[in-house]
Amino acid sequence: MSDACHPYEPFKCPGDGACISIQYLCDGAPDCLDGYDEDSRLCTAAKRPPVEETSSFLQSLLASHGPNYLEKLFGSKARDALAPLGGVDKVAITLSESQTNEDFRSSTASDEIRLEHLRSVFMAVENGDLGMLKSLGIKDSELGDVKFFLEKLVNTGFLD
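Structure tokens predicted for Prohormone-4:
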């Protein structure tokens, strides 16, 4: 028997190997023996942009603007292409799986001051306050991309 799941049941439960339909993910009833299909991190990630897209976006910002550009959003721990936070891929995964701003802070061991800063950045995006983003040094030419990216997180409950 093949290890691949049938196209109508493409999600393979990591614990027991059972294949389930995507519609059964995060539906409130566990279908995997270990309940993985109802895991809060999985369910949050399912609503967010794909991790690859987030990682690619962060990489493109760093490539265009230098290895310390993301300090404007995430504070001094975002130096050297996010190395102190575990690197771009780790931050992308954490942004995808963190239900809220507070979860993100806990997962990245960021301090409370930076959490307030990050929350204010997200609030500015939610309220359409591009002046706040400009005050961080984000140029007009970058505002659209940064706003689009952050809105995706805000719209999936990151500020809740």
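The first helix runs from residue 40 to 47.
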